[in-house]
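Handout, page 2. Input:
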Amino acid sequence: MELTEEQKTEYFRRSYTAVDGLWFMKVEERMGFETALQIDQAVWEILPKIQARALKAMMDLPAGLAGLEQALSARLALEGFDFEIERHEEGLMVMVRSCPWHQIMIKSGRAALSERVSDVICRVENETWAREFSEPGAEIGFEREARLCRGEGMCRVWFGKKEARAQRK
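Output:
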C-alpha cells in the first residue's frame, strides 16, 4: 500500500512534534526544567530562521508583510494550527483558535507549564519570523495580545511595522 501525500505529511508532522517534546523531556530529566527551556530557546532562535528562509525560497516570497502573511499561513497550516489571519493596512493579526503545541502540553499533563514555555518559545519564534521578513528601514515587530495558554480563548498575535505599532496603542 502506498501512502498518500496527506499521510506522509501527517507522519512527518507527528515525528517533528514528538522529537521536540522527547528531547525536551530528556534534557529536563537530566538537567532540570529551566535548563531544558534555555536550550529549547536556543534551538527556537535558529529553527524559525531555517523555516522562514526555506518557505521564502520555496514559495518565492518577498520580504515585508505580504511575504510574512503567506509564509505564516503555510507554516501554521503545515503544523496543524486552527488559525485565521486578518490583513490590516498597518499589519497582520494572527488569531489562533487551536495550537498543536499547547494541545500536546495538555495531553501530556503539562498544561500548567504551557504559559511558561510560551513566554519564552512563542516570543522568540515570532520575533525571528518578524525579523526574517523585515526590510531595511522597515522592521516588522510583533506583539501578543492574547494567549490560549492563559485561558484567553485564542492567541492573538499582531505583526506590523514597528512605527505603526506605536500608533496602534
